[in-house]
């Protein structure tokens, strides 16, 4: 068969869903597939595809994509593309229409978000009826998918996301790492505790800040510094009003000298080198890509005991805390702050787990086996 696939992502946002196509493109190419893309003109998705070496077909809006269906079909035919992969539920309208007009197209959909409401009305029965395979990115999301989508269980497959562990291997010299820690505002001898992620209420930054306040009050003997990593503007995918509220709360709690907002960073693997503990307090994570990235970097991780995160972390690789319980987060962080040997053991076990279960190569191998039927 033709080893070609078009990834469709008609979004102007910028999060894990939008990053996914460009993230897997190098591995798709390495495994002998020719990737193509369909994106919105002047979007971050389109730019990321270009950076990955793919010149995407572009449309101005999702509705314009439906009007451009003849042009898209002609593109698929001229490039002999027989596999489509959608990443937003709204894009399935286009994917299903293309599969209807060109029988023989194989249509795949990844539910990156974790559906929360039933989709079994006539429209969704038609659209999902054209899907060859739906990928759930965790057991937690697969259970939701089974309840929500008009598909038999055999057509819904759990396929964990993966990363390239080599990208998270230590590279910085001691001097460079110390310089980066200073840049992040971490005092000498302090334990650096980081929280990477988009600034939205569901990511749990507010609970984490309350936990740091409790930690400061209950254990004034501990030396630590908090690092919030993520874009601070709407253009970077964050909720600006939420960012402002967080800054106000930090000031009210007197934590300004103990907490750094880094802004958007492209060097997350290197930032992990400068951190000692990574926290992911997301309330209902569909997977937890940040969790496995931190684990690959050999860091002790505290994750929320909700959503898919408990599938990634156990007592041998990290700690879990209730997502709405600042006291539990303060306790988990205190345990790791005082015990450097525990942090090291958890980090080493976490790194081994990633190499065993969550590599990008294994993810793409499973994906292309499905593409090929």
From TrEMBL:
One GO MF term: glycosyltransferase activity
Enzyme class: transferase
Domain of life (superkingdom): Bacteria
Entry EC no(s): 2.4.-.-
InterPro entries recorded: Glyco_trans_1 (IPR001296), Glyco_trans_4-like_N (IPR028098)
Classification via Gene3D superfamilies: Glycogen Phosphorylase B
Positions of the Glycosyltransferase subfamily 4-like N-terminal domain: 14-166
Keywords for this protein: Glycosyltransferase, Transferase
Domain Glycosyl transferase family, chain residue ranges per copy: 179-353
Homology family: Belongs to the glycosyltransferase group 1 family. Glycosyltransferase 4 subfamily.
Protein name in the entry: Glycosyltransferase
Organism (species): Halomonas kalidii
């Amino acid at each position: 068969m033709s080893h070609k696939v078009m990834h469709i992502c008609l979004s102007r946002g910028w999060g894990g869903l939008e990053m996914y196509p460009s993230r897997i493109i190098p591995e798709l190419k390495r495994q002998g597939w020719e990737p193509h893309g369909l994106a919105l003109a002047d979007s971050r998705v389109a730019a990321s595809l270009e950076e990955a070496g793919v010149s995407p077909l572009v449309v101005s809006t999702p509705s314009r994509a439906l009007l451009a269906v003849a042009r898209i079909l002609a593109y698929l035919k001229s490039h002999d593309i027989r596999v489509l992969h959608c990443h937003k539920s709204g894009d399935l309208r286009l994917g299903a229409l293309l599969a209807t007009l060109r029988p023989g197209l194989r249509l795949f959909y990844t539910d990156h978000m974790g559906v929360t409401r039933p989709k079994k009305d006539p429209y969704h029965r038609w659209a999902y009826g054209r899907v060859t395979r739906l990928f759930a990115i965790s057991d937690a999301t697969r259970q939701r998918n089974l309840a929500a989508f008009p598909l038999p269980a055999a057509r819904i497959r759990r396929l964990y996301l993966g990363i390239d562990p080599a990208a998270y291997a230590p590279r910085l010299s001691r001097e460079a790492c110390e310089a980066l820690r200073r840049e992040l505002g971490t005092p000498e001898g302090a334990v650096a505790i980081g929280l990477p992620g988009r600034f939205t209420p569901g990511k749990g930054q507010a609970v984490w800040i309350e936990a740091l306040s409790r930690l400061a009050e209950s254990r004034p003997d501990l030396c630590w510094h908090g690092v919030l990593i993520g874009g601070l503007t709407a253009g970077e995918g964050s909720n600006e009003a939420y960012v402002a509220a967080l800054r106000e709360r930090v000031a009210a709690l007197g934590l300004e000298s103990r907490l750094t907002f880094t802004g958007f960073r492209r060097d997350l693997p290197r930032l992990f080198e400068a951190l000692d503990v990574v926290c992911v307090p997301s309330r209902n994570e569909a997977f937890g890509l940040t969790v496995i990235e931190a684990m690959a970097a050999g860091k002790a991780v505290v994750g929320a005991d909700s959503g898919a995160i408990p599938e990634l972390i156990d007592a041998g690789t990290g700690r879990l805390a209730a997502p709405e319980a600042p006291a539990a987060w303060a306790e988990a962080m205190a345990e790791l702050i005082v015990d450097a040997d525990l942090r090291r053991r958890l980090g080493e076990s976490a790194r081994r787990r990633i190499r065993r279960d969550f590599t990008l190569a294994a993810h793409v191998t499973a994906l292309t086996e499905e593409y090929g039927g």
